[in-house]
Specification:
Blueprint: E1 2-7, H1 12-26, E2 30-33, H2 35-44, E3 49-51, H3 59-68, E4 74-78, H4 88-101, E5 105-106, H5 109-121, H6 126-132, E6 146-147, E7 152-153, H7 154-159
Parallel strand pairs: 1-2, 1-4, 2-3, 4-5
Antiparallel strand pairs: 6-7
Helix pairs in contact: 1-2, 3-4
Length: 160
Amino acid sequence: MKVAFVAHDQKKEELINFTIAYQHLFHAHELFATGTTGQLIMDQTTLDIFLFKSGPLGGDQQLGALIAQNDLDLLLFFRDPLVAQPHEPDISALLRLCDVYGIPVATNMATAELLVHALERGDFNWRDIIHNNRPVNVTGLKERPVDKQRGVSSAAAERQ
């Protein structure tokens, strides 16, 4: 599974402690993180994490691109709800993409605990089916010609 870590400044220590506690589990997965958060986690654990840029410098958007490609299975994003973030639109976009693509997200330790235990049990294996059976890109399909007399496509004309 592909797991990503993000944390606001006041939540970085909490996420680091969380990853220390579960590093035995995370070793079995492909890990990603925004730059500062990921580096801090790697400094305190033996985890190997692919680092994107820092969140405010585009890391949130890089993670969003991974999600839009349906290449992420779980996002652990420890947010600080009491501090306004200068890159709030990027954060909102990232969370919106998770909703669009059905990516489970934990924004606090309580939810992260539940999702990590689900990951450990194999409850995320349904994501493998998605990764292995992605829909074909249909943008190259040609539309059927329109029946000019009736103003409908030939497929619609055939049904009538």
